[in-house]
Design goal:
By secondary structure, the protein is an all-alpha fold. It has one domain (3-206). Helix content is 81%, strand content 0%. The protein has 9 helices and no strands. The protein has helices at residues 3-18, 24-30, 36-68, 72-91, 99-106, 112-121, 124-138, 144-166, 168-210. α3 packs across α6 and α3 (36-68) packs across α7. The chain is globular, with a radius of gyration of 18 Å. The two termini are 18 Å apart. The model has no long low-confidence stretch (mean pLDDT 86).
Length: 217
Protein backbone atom coordinates (compact mmCIF):
# COMPACT_ATOMS: atom_id res chain seq x y z
CA UNK A 1 0.00 0.00 0.00
CA UNK A 2 1.39 3.39 -1.00
CA UNK A 3 1.83 5.78 1.94
CA UNK A 4 0.53 8.89 0.20
CA UNK A 5 -2.36 7.01 -1.40
CA UNK A 6 -3.42 5.64 1.99
CA UNK A 7 -3.07 8.99 3.76
CA UNK A 8 -5.00 11.02 1.20
CA UNK A 9 -7.67 8.37 0.74
CA UNK A 10 -8.17 8.01 4.48
CA UNK A 11 -8.17 11.76 5.13
CA UNK A 12 -10.48 12.67 2.25
CA UNK A 13 -12.94 9.85 3.03
CA UNK A 14 -13.17 10.86 6.68
CA UNK A 15 -13.42 14.57 5.89
CA UNK A 16 -16.20 14.05 3.37
CA UNK A 17 -18.16 11.76 5.70
CA UNK A 18 -17.64 13.91 8.82
CA UNK A 19 -18.46 17.00 6.71
CA UNK A 20 -17.63 19.76 9.23
CA UNK A 21 -18.46 22.43 6.62
CA UNK A 22 -21.92 20.98 6.10
CA UNK A 23 -22.52 20.86 9.85
CA UNK A 24 -21.91 24.62 10.29
CA UNK A 25 -25.64 25.47 10.08
CA UNK A 26 -26.35 22.84 12.76
CA UNK A 27 -23.72 24.36 15.04
CA UNK A 28 -25.11 27.85 14.46
CA UNK A 29 -28.67 26.76 15.21
CA UNK A 30 -27.63 24.99 18.42
CA UNK A 31 -25.61 27.99 19.64
CA UNK A 32 -27.92 30.75 18.43
CA UNK A 33 -28.01 33.62 20.90
CA UNK A 34 -25.36 32.04 23.12
CA UNK A 35 -22.30 33.81 24.49
CA UNK A 36 -19.42 33.91 22.00
CA UNK A 37 -16.95 32.63 24.57
CA UNK A 38 -19.19 29.63 25.30
CA UNK A 39 -19.56 28.90 21.57
CA UNK A 40 -15.79 28.92 21.09
CA UNK A 41 -15.41 26.60 24.07
CA UNK A 42 -17.94 24.18 22.57
CA UNK A 43 -16.09 24.21 19.25
CA UNK A 44 -12.79 23.45 20.98
CA UNK A 45 -14.21 20.69 23.18
CA UNK A 46 -16.04 19.16 20.22
CA UNK A 47 -12.76 18.93 18.26
CA UNK A 48 -11.05 17.24 21.20
CA UNK A 49 -13.93 14.79 21.61
CA UNK A 50 -13.88 14.01 17.88
CA UNK A 51 -10.16 13.24 18.00
CA UNK A 52 -10.51 11.03 21.08
CA UNK A 53 -13.52 9.13 19.71
CA UNK A 54 -11.98 8.54 16.30
CA UNK A 55 -8.68 7.50 17.85
CA UNK A 56 -10.42 4.90 20.03
CA UNK A 57 -12.27 3.36 17.09
CA UNK A 58 -9.19 3.53 14.88
CA UNK A 59 -6.76 1.93 17.34
CA UNK A 60 -9.17 -0.57 18.88
CA UNK A 61 -11.24 -1.23 15.76
CA UNK A 62 -9.57 -4.47 14.70
CA UNK A 63 -9.89 -5.97 18.20
CA UNK A 64 -13.56 -4.98 18.30
CA UNK A 65 -14.14 -6.83 15.04
CA UNK A 66 -12.28 -9.89 16.32
CA UNK A 67 -14.29 -9.88 19.54
CA UNK A 68 -17.61 -9.94 17.65
CA UNK A 69 -16.26 -12.20 14.92
CA UNK A 70 -16.85 -9.72 12.08
CA UNK A 71 -14.69 -9.87 8.97
CA UNK A 72 -13.33 -6.79 7.26
CA UNK A 73 -15.49 -7.61 4.23
CA UNK A 74 -18.63 -7.59 6.39
CA UNK A 75 -17.61 -4.16 7.70
CA UNK A 76 -16.99 -2.95 4.14
CA UNK A 77 -20.46 -4.10 3.07
CA UNK A 78 -22.24 -2.70 6.14
CA UNK A 79 -20.16 0.48 6.02
CA UNK A 80 -20.91 0.91 2.33
CA UNK A 81 -24.64 0.72 3.01
CA UNK A 82 -24.36 3.22 5.88
CA UNK A 83 -22.20 5.66 3.91
CA UNK A 84 -24.50 5.27 0.91
CA UNK A 85 -27.55 6.16 3.01
CA UNK A 86 -25.72 9.21 4.36
CA UNK A 87 -24.79 10.23 0.83
CA UNK A 88 -28.38 9.82 -0.32
CA UNK A 89 -29.63 11.95 2.57
CA UNK A 90 -27.10 14.62 1.52
CA UNK A 91 -28.51 14.56 -2.00
CA UNK A 92 -31.98 14.92 -0.49
CA UNK A 93 -31.19 17.05 2.55
CA UNK A 94 -33.21 16.83 5.74
CA UNK A 95 -32.55 18.40 9.15
CA UNK A 96 -29.64 16.70 10.95
CA UNK A 97 -31.67 16.81 14.16
CA UNK A 98 -35.40 16.51 14.72
CA UNK A 99 -37.27 19.37 16.36
CA UNK A 100 -37.43 17.42 19.62
CA UNK A 101 -33.71 16.61 19.54
CA UNK A 102 -32.91 20.22 18.68
CA UNK A 103 -34.93 21.58 21.59
CA UNK A 104 -33.34 19.06 23.98
CA UNK A 105 -29.84 20.02 22.83
CA UNK A 106 -30.64 23.71 23.26
CA UNK A 107 -31.30 23.00 26.94
CA UNK A 108 -27.95 21.28 27.48
CA UNK A 109 -25.16 23.09 29.29
CA UNK A 110 -22.63 21.27 27.11
CA UNK A 111 -23.27 20.07 23.53
CA UNK A 112 -19.65 19.35 22.60
CA UNK A 113 -19.94 15.57 23.00
CA UNK A 114 -23.61 14.93 22.25
CA UNK A 115 -24.73 15.76 19.65
CA UNK A 116 -21.76 17.62 18.06
CA UNK A 117 -18.96 15.07 18.38
CA UNK A 118 -21.29 12.07 18.25
CA UNK A 119 -23.24 11.47 16.12
CA UNK A 120 -22.93 14.63 14.00
CA UNK A 121 -19.17 14.46 13.24
CA UNK A 122 -18.00 11.03 14.45
CA UNK A 123 -21.11 9.19 13.34
CA UNK A 124 -21.74 5.68 11.94
CA UNK A 125 -20.20 6.52 8.55
CA UNK A 126 -16.95 7.76 10.10
CA UNK A 127 -16.80 4.73 12.38
CA UNK A 128 -17.25 2.38 9.41
CA UNK A 129 -14.31 4.00 7.60
CA UNK A 130 -12.17 3.84 10.77
CA UNK A 131 -12.95 0.15 11.37
CA UNK A 132 -12.31 -0.80 7.76
CA UNK A 133 -8.92 0.90 7.60
CA UNK A 134 -7.94 -0.40 11.05
CA UNK A 135 -8.71 -3.96 9.94
CA UNK A 136 -6.58 -3.62 6.82
CA UNK A 137 -3.66 -2.22 8.79
CA UNK A 138 -3.99 -4.85 11.53
CA UNK A 139 -3.27 -7.56 8.95
CA UNK A 140 -0.07 -5.80 7.89
CA UNK A 141 2.81 -6.27 10.35
CA UNK A 142 4.83 -3.49 8.70
CA UNK A 143 2.20 -0.80 9.14
CA UNK A 144 3.63 1.36 11.94
CA UNK A 145 4.10 4.31 9.57
CA UNK A 146 0.56 3.85 8.25
CA UNK A 147 -0.83 3.94 11.80
CA UNK A 148 1.12 7.14 12.38
CA UNK A 149 -0.24 8.73 9.21
CA UNK A 150 -3.73 7.64 10.24
CA UNK A 151 -3.33 9.48 13.53
CA UNK A 152 -2.17 12.59 11.66
CA UNK A 153 -5.30 12.37 9.50
CA UNK A 154 -7.49 12.17 12.62
CA UNK A 155 -5.74 15.21 14.06
CA UNK A 156 -6.39 17.14 10.84
CA UNK A 157 -10.08 16.17 10.95
CA UNK A 158 -10.29 17.45 14.54
CA UNK A 159 -8.53 20.71 13.63
CA UNK A 160 -10.78 21.26 10.61
CA UNK A 161 -13.83 20.64 12.81
CA UNK A 162 -12.60 23.21 15.31
CA UNK A 163 -11.88 25.76 12.58
CA UNK A 164 -15.28 25.30 10.91
CA UNK A 165 -17.19 25.65 14.18
CA UNK A 166 -14.89 28.37 15.55
CA UNK A 167 -15.45 30.40 12.37
CA UNK A 168 -19.00 29.18 11.75
CA UNK A 169 -20.38 32.68 11.29
CA UNK A 170 -17.73 33.57 8.73
CA UNK A 171 -18.15 30.27 6.85
CA UNK A 172 -21.92 30.72 6.69
CA UNK A 173 -21.57 34.33 5.60
CA UNK A 174 -19.07 33.48 2.83
CA UNK A 175 -20.86 30.43 1.42
CA UNK A 176 -24.42 31.39 2.27
CA UNK A 177 -27.32 28.97 2.56
CA UNK A 178 -27.29 28.12 -1.15
CA UNK A 179 -23.53 27.58 -1.16
CA UNK A 180 -23.67 25.19 1.79
CA UNK A 181 -26.61 23.39 0.20
CA UNK A 182 -24.71 22.96 -3.08
CA UNK A 183 -21.63 21.73 -1.22
CA UNK A 184 -23.77 19.22 0.68
CA UNK A 185 -25.10 17.79 -2.58
CA UNK A 186 -21.57 17.45 -3.98
CA UNK A 187 -20.48 15.73 -0.77
CA UNK A 188 -23.49 13.41 -1.11
CA UNK A 189 -22.42 12.32 -4.58
CA UNK A 190 -18.85 11.67 -3.41
CA UNK A 191 -20.18 9.65 -0.46
CA UNK A 192 -22.28 7.49 -2.76
CA UNK A 193 -19.18 6.79 -4.88
CA UNK A 194 -17.18 5.90 -1.74
CA UNK A 195 -20.03 3.65 -0.60
CA UNK A 196 -20.15 1.90 -3.98
CA UNK A 197 -16.41 1.19 -3.80
CA UNK A 198 -16.72 -0.14 -0.23
CA UNK A 199 -19.51 -2.50 -1.30
CA UNK A 200 -17.53 -3.65 -4.34
CA UNK A 201 -14.44 -4.32 -2.18
CA UNK A 202 -16.59 -6.22 0.32
CA UNK A 203 -18.25 -8.39 -2.34
CA UNK A 204 -14.94 -9.15 -4.08
CA UNK A 205 -13.37 -10.04 -0.73
CA UNK A 206 -16.24 -12.34 0.22
CA UNK A 207 -16.08 -14.10 -3.14
CA UNK A 208 -12.33 -14.54 -2.71
CA UNK A 209 -12.78 -16.01 0.79
CA UNK A 210 -15.64 -18.41 0.01
CA UNK A 211 -14.91 -19.19 -3.65
CA UNK A 212 -11.09 -19.11 -3.96
CA UNK A 213 -11.23 -20.62 -7.43
CA UNK A 214 -13.27 -17.73 -8.80
CA UNK A 215 -11.27 -14.85 -10.24
CA UNK A 216 -12.82 -11.40 -9.96
CA UNK A 217 -11.13 -8.58 -11.89
Amino acid sequence: MDLMHFFLGFLISLFVIADPFGMVPVFLSLTEGADRKWCNKQARKCAINVFVLMTIFFLAGSWVLEFFGFTVHAVELAGGLIVGSIGWSCMNPKPALSDKEHSECRERADISFVPLAMPIIAGPGSIAVLLTNASHLHNDKESVVFWGLGMVALLLIAISTWLCFRCAGIVHKCLGHSGLKAMTRIVGFILICIAAQMVIDGVVGLIGDHFPGVKVN
